[in-house]
Structures are given as C-alpha cells and as structure tokens.
Amino acid sequence: MSNNTANTSSTSEAISKATSTGRKAYRGEVLHFLADPAKVSEEESYQYFEDGLLVINNGLVEALGNAKDLLITLPADVIVTQYDNGLIMPGFIDTHVHYAQSEMVASYGEQLLEWLENYTFPEEKQFADIEHGKRVAEFFLTQLLDAGTTTALVFGTVHKESVEAFFIVAQQKKLRMICGKVLMNQNCPVDLSDTVESGYADSKALIEKWHNTDRLQYAITPRFAPTCSTDQLNKAGELLKEYPSVYLHTHLSENKDEIAWVSELFPDSDGYLDVYDKSSLLGRRSVFAHGVHLHDHECQRLSDTNSAIAFCPTSNLFLGSGCFNLKQAEEFDVNVGLGTDIGAGSSFSMLTTLNEGYKTQQLRGDKLSPYKSLYLATLGGAVALDLEGTIGNFVQGAEADFIVLDYQATPLMDVRIKRCNTLTEKLFVLSMLGDDRHVKATHIMGEKV
C-alpha cells in the first residue's frame, strides 16, 4: 500500500484479451476507505494505490493491492482493464432521495412546507399509474448511474404502484436499492392519503414480495411526523418488529417551522425525535433525513440506538433550512451518510453534494476534509445503511459496485489536477470541481454499465 500520489501518464484505456472465467481485473489509481477519518488518523482511514489492481470474481471483490504484486498471481486469460488519468473508487451511496420528484427539481422560491404544498404533492399524484412510475424510475436510475451513484435509499409515494415500478426497473438493472411506500394519513391532500390499515397492508405486501429479492430491500417510510397520526406511526413500529431486517426512512428536524408544527401536533412528546421514539421507530436500520436542528439529547438518543442521519447539504441550502452540524454528530458518534434529496436537492451528483457540504461546514466555522467527504459518500453511507462489508469499499467479498473519476473530463479539472502535489489536494479538487461529467465509468457487480 502507498499513500503517496502521482499522476498517471498514459491517456489510453487498454483492455487485454477476453477470458472464459468470472474473474476480471481493473488497473489504475485506487482509493477506498477502511474507517471514519474522525475516529482514526486520516492516513489510517483509507488505502490508496498509485498503481493498483482490483480483482473481481463473479461480481464480488476478490483482491485489492499493488498491480505489480497481484498481476503475477492471475491466470493468463483474465481480462485486465486499465483506467488511466483517473481514480477508481467504490460507487457513491445516496442515503436520502425521492425518485418521484426527479422531474420537479429546481422549483422556485419556497421553503419546506410551502414547497411540499405547491410542488411536491401535485407531482406525486401522478404515481398511481405504474407505467408513469416505471418511466420516471428509468430516468432516475440512469441519472444516478451517470453520476456514479450505485446504491440509494429512496422515497416512493403513497401509492403502492410507485414502489412496484421502482423495484421492477431497479431489478432489471441488477442494482442494490432500498425503497418504500410513503405512509401519510393526515395534513395532506385527500388523494395522497392512505389509512392506518391500508398503509400497513400495502407495506406488508411490498415487504413480502420485494425485501431481499435479488439486491432489493424495503424501507418503511412515514413521510414525516406531521403527516402521520400516532396510530399510523405505531403501526409502522409494529411492522418493524415483524420484519426486523427492513429499514425505517423518514424526515427529522429539517426546518424550524416544521419543528414548531410537530410540537403543536404532538404536545406530549419531548421534541421531534421523541415522536418517532415513542412509536419504536429508532434502530440500526433507521435513517432520518436532515437533522439540521438537533438537540444534544437527540443526538445521544440517535447514537444509543445506532440510528443514522442523512446529511443533505444541497437541499438544506436550496430550501434555506440551515447547515447541518456535522461536528455535533461526530461528538455523539451518530452514523451519518450523504443524501442528494432530489428534488429539493438540485443535483444527482454526489460530487456536487460534497461541494455544498464543504460550504455548509464553512458557514458553521468548521472544516470538512476531502477524506471525510469521500468517506461519507462511500463507506459512511454503507455504515449508515448497515451494509458495511457488502458495499462501500473494496474489502474481500464486497459487491463490486465501483466508479472511475476522470481527471481530464473538463479543461479546468485537467489544469487543476496537474498542479496538485499531494493526494489531499487532488481529492479536494475532485470534491470541489467534480460533477457527473467527471464520472468516466460506473460498474455494477463488476460489469460496466
């Protein structure tokens, strides 16, 4: 292993002759994370190979190391694909995104509650039609893959058909995706409302059909506390007890007006998080989007239950919600992943999300290193989703979802990278100037898509 950086000199992408086995290899600069840079030294948090080799066997990682050491161990007929002038990394992981909002990105001029009323709810009404859902899911997943995102935790709509459509398309693409039907029985349009009973029955049917089918998993998905009665939240908690391997996915403390509304609706609860806690919704596979305005005792409770926060900086800035306190989350050892939060977020690109994340922490007077940023976008997301060892890095046996970031995708990137003298500089430039144009290739289970 080497932690020294160097630019590769060749601009070619060379591929050797084909093989009849399931084994293949990819050569180039390789980076992946082993731990959270906030918990260990930065140098201990990652592995970087200036001339590395990633060996895949039947869609899983078999080996990772220096090319000169591993090449001599491979049979002569193994495919070796070389990526030059770029960086091989695990695929990005988006821990909070709404596929049904793909076509309403960049809707002007509102904060959260008004934005939901004026844009989101009208858009989501279309997803009672499964064919509409499949069309949007195809577009959404193509956008994610183009941006280098290989796994996402996804909101459907209140319609069972929206989740059926999403899973059908994701299954065809052999993706590891998590999705759920929205639960919403109050403070919403009548034609976007379910009931305690129908929400439970529809969720149960979707879990039985789709959870752990191929690479698909299910998330019980109350929209957020204001649109769910106590009975509905309690029923979601019952579902979690019945199916302990599924996820819980909802929103938390995004906007100050929203928090005040929750206090009015649930006067017997000790804050926003406690509404969910009273319904037994916290746990190892519970992911709460945003958490922009959390109290210390709420962070402690999230930590105690191994629950996770999805940090969505692009959306938080777009809606004027505030700047997530990453240092507070680190202090209380809360699991944190990154989310684009399409459609309040304005880009599918995790690189763009890193750019915005850096700025939110600057506004707080804190620093966000490129190592922490890229950790959150990969292994941090896997930890938040309880999928460490399955996705997020290149440990042996992990699923081989990975990307190649292109140092020469734009003239500006090319010029800046050539002026970098350290790996830290290169990673920071990627996280500040990068977007979907800089994703040269996306591989799913070792296959380029």
State the gist of this model:
The chain is an alpha/beta fold. Helix content is 37%, strand content 23%.
Describe the fold and architecture:
Strands 5, 6, 7, 8, 9, 10, 11, 12 and 13 form a 9-stranded parallel beta sheet that branches. Helix 13 (350-363) packs across helix 14, helix 13 (350-363) crosses helix 17 (423-433) and helix 14 packs across helix 17 (423-433). The longest helix has 17 residues, at 130-146. Helices cover 37% and strands 23% of the residues. It has helices spanning 42-45, 67-70, 112-124, 130-146, 160-172, 196-210, 230-242, 256-265, 272-278, 296-304, 313-318, 326-331, 350-363, 370-377, 379-384, 411-418, 423-433, and strands at residues 23-33, 46-57, 60-66, 79-90, 92-98, 149-155, 176-180, 182-183, 216-222, 247-252, 286-290, 308-311, 335-338, 402-406, 439-444, 447-448. The protein folds into 2 domains: 23-91 and 393-448, Urease, subunit C, domain 1 (Roll); 92-348, Metal-dependent hydrolases (TIM Barrel, Alpha-Beta Barrel). The protein has 17 helices and 16 strands. Residues 1-20 have low confidence and may be disordered. By secondary structure, the protein is an alpha/beta fold. Its cofactor is Zn(2+).
